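step: validate -> pass
step: tokenize input -> pass
step: predict -> running
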Amino acid sequence: MRLLLPVFTAFQHCHPSYTSQINRPLTIMSIPKALVVDPFCYRQFSESECSKSYGGTVFTVPIAEFEEVVNARWNESNLVDGYAPFCKHIFIENDFTDAEVNILEINSENEKFLRTKYEARNSKELPVLTRFFPKDLVISDDKPLPKAKYLDLILYSREQIMKENESMGKENSEEMNSVPWGIVSIKAQNVDYEIPMTPITAMRNALGKEEGGSGVPIDRDAYMAAYEFWNRRKFRNIRQFWCSRTISPNDSTAAL
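step: predict -> pass
step: emit ->
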């Protein structure tokens, strides 16, 4: 049997205040922003202190520059429906970051390196059981991670982000009050379509906003489709966390 697993590095809780301590220079754009990186997603950028303990893809490009690029490529007609009405995806070519894919297929050679661990993405979430590949055991100079061809921008509507922030006792950023969509997670991948969220992410979302979820009930068919996909794959030991915003702010796909 072959599976896929994520790659993982040590994870620790990120203090909530970190998400608001990023100095973001003002940028002049010819058109109003449609997208802004939500504070929950700051952990995916190296300029944030949270990135040092994050287990998923971390970008070296500054947040302001990232926003400038994705807004320049914004086209509302390219929005793809997500797992709920408030969730959308946009897939863009990854020609401006060095992000690598972070999913490995499980096989007889690497299966012995699989690890499990209970983790929460922040201090307000309930820990859940995850599995992963430690990066130092499956990646080497002669077997590097391939650069991702695409980026899946996972978007939540302004209204949903505000609802989740309110339920978690968090303030909304000033920018979020003026844009329709917030980027809550970014997945580096080699396909231009949505990879199923991990089953545990669907369960976490169903717990409700107070526990860090989105409050969307589990869809059995979608859950079983996710099971079929992730039972054959897992994240490599890169940084872990896929894509769901189950805190006020995916991780959605976990991965994702």
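step: describe -> The CA atoms of residues 163 and 184 lie 14 Å apart.
step: cleanup -> pass
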